[in-house]
Every structure is written in C-alpha cells, then in structure tokens.
Amino acid sequence: MTQIAEKVLTTQEVVARFTELAQQEKWFEIQDELFAEDVRSIEPAGSPYMDDAFGKTAVRKKADEFVSRIEAVHRVYTSAPIVTGNHIAVARETDITVRPHGRIQMNEIMLYEVKDGKIILEQFFY
After folding, report:
1. Using one digit for the tens of pLDDT, what is the confidence trace for 5-39?
2. How far is CA 59 from the centre of its chain?
3. Which Pfam families does the UniProt record give (predicted)?
4. What is the rounded CA–CA span in Å between residue 77 and residue 100?
5. Is residue 96 part of a domain?
6. Measured between alpha carbons, how far is 23 from 58 in angstroms, rounded to an integer?
7. 122: burial class by Cβ within 10 Å (0-12, 13-18, 19+)?
C-alpha cells in the first residue's frame, strides 16, 4: 500500500492560512488544520478563565468549554501577525460576556510556535 506523504507547510504558509482564518474568526478551523497532535496551550499563571492543555484533543476541549460559556460578543479584534523565525504573534482584543465572570475586556498577545509545518505551541499573555 502506497502512502501519500502530507506536504509540510513552511512557516510562511502556516502564517498565511492562520491569518486568513483568524480574520474570519475561524479559530476551530485553525486548530483542526494547523495544530500538531502534541500541541501545548499555555495560559498565564493563575488565569481565572482557563487552564493549560496538552494535546490536540485536550486543547480543543478547552476551547469548546470556554466558547460554550460566552453569552455575548461585544467586540473582537485580531491584529496582523508579526513573524520571526518559527514564531507568530498577534494582538487580540476581546470584549465579551462569559459565565461566570460577566463582561470582560481582554487585551492579549497570542504567541504561536511552528515546527514541521504545524503549530506546536500557543501561549497567551493577558
């Protein structure tokens, strides 16, 4: 049986697809298409909103759980990416109402690391 090797994306190709999807607020598609199976998702120490997660399934569960608690989206904004080497950074501003926290305004830096054509790390600073 012949296996077809999956094309390994360059960091620039990952950035292009990430940007296209992020500007459309398609964060789950970013996870599905661009995250490695062993991706790590790291929150600031002591975050009241979410915990860290390790592995694509756990990261998706973390995101699903958070999104399920959003009661209203008042404003969202994602900047164009800054790219250096294998790292991508974007600024993200959100004004949302989330159970049980109420309305929160979050200004954060979202940092991603790419290896072998996949995102292996997302880390949030807020």
Report:
1. 678 999 999 999 999 999 999 999 999 999 999 99
2. 9
3. SnoaL_5
4. 23
5. yes
6. 24
7. buried
